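Human: If only I could read backbone structure tokens as easily as an amino acid sequence. Underneath my words sits a plain record pairing an amino acid chain with its backbone structure tokens. Take your time, and here it is.
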Amino acid sequence: MYLEQTLKNYKIYRFIFSFSLLFSFGIFVVLSDKSLNVETVSIPAIILVIYTLASFFSLFIERTSIIDFLLDITAISSFIFYDFDKLKFFSLLYLFALFFAGFLLPSLQAYLVAFIAFVLYVLMFVFLGTFKGLEAVFNIILNGVAFAAITTAGIKLKEKIKSQEAYIEILEKEKKENELYKRLYRMAAELAHEIKNPLTSIKAAADLLGEGVYSPKLTDMIKKESERLNQLLKDFLMLSKPRKSNPQYVNIGNLLKQLLTTYRTNNKEVELNIKKNYTIYIDEKEFISALSNLIKNAFEWAKSKVSITVDGTKDYIIIIIEDDGPGIPREDINKIFEPFYTKREGGTGLGLAIAKRVIVENQGYLFVDPNKKNGTRFIIQLPVNKEGRDEGINR
């Protein structure tokens, strides 16, 4: 946010200013007439050194409070107090401190800082100033108005920026909601399309049967399309319904071996490399669904080989499923986990979306390696809880 960045910048600029002022004062003393005695330069020098050191150490304090601005007006007042007649024009420095006080502090605190600065200036003017009469009154009133005006300007600017940030936040929220609605509308349209296709086939077959045309192909079509429709609805419900997780300990190596017996084909080589055999605490049914969809996808797109690797660290289990198929174009990598996104004829486009949901909701990650040139590499990363790590490794 803009205000937070201003807080950091204010402290940095204050340190740069105080250091520059101290450095300039040092140059002035060195180049000035040797008649300057120690007392003449020591007090301003001490004030500037203290202010510079305080500004430096404040850089390491994240929070900006009223103390920061009291430090500023105290340093300015001390500097002017040393020789009011010659240095009173440095009162312009109050304006910078009061503007940022109005910008960065709550309004009440900002006006309190302005009031304290005004009181300090009036006391110095009354007891140390040489101006008398109406000229002095006019000078005090002018400075008081300036202090109040610059503080108010800082407050008003802060309120305007906060209002703009709130408006931008509303727009961003609205944008996200609109994107969500668009995705929901698209999902509903795609679901309707996916349901319509098997229903059309079922209706056509039923119409022919109703006309007395009997054929085993028609009954097989009805059965096949009904099963397809049932599977589509099952997948969609798994993707959309709230989770009722029933976690248990699952041995990943054994589970993968079972799944490979289901999807293994004679014309494709399978390589299973289990470097560490973990047991993970997870809902077995959901985990099987996620792995099944990824393994099935690999076998459907592979030309000749599917490779699965299980590895990990003390914190994570890593499962890599890869094939030597045509791969995924870079422009499609961010789309493949969207519901109903598919380039395979007869596919529902829900498998990868289901896998993504299962892994993410178990605090894991599922992504495609964009650097693999030949084929596709899916990487699953799941956290290892202590129980699963202690019981599962090298079992």
